[in-house]
Amino acid sequence: MASHPIVQAGENVTRQVLADHPDLMVVAFGFEAKGAEGALHNHPHVQSTFVESGRFRFSMDGDTFEVGPGDSFVIPSNAVHGCVCLEPGRLVDCFTPRRDDFL
């Protein structure tokens, strides 16, 4: 059960922590409009991303690929990555260890 608030993570992007433990965190990102962006960034956490809905163009360490509902992939520690929303939707990300900056 999610008890964490929904927060703005960018223009037309929301974030909500769904579950957390020091070793693992599950976070939902809502992309409300075509063109909304998850800016390029990196972090020491290993991340898995599951596309619940929508379509997205991802960039990861210079490679670009598109994903849609049901797709999933892993982002290694410190890989530079980001995305652009092609169709509004929701991504569910898992991080290990937990992203304390999201709490």
From TrEMBL:
Domain Cupin type-2: 34-92
One Pfam entry name: Cupin_2
SUPFAM superfamilies in alphabetical order: RmlC-like cupins (SSF51182)
Domain of life: Bacteria
Protein name: Cupin domain-containing protein
Source organism per UniProt: Jannaschia pohangensis
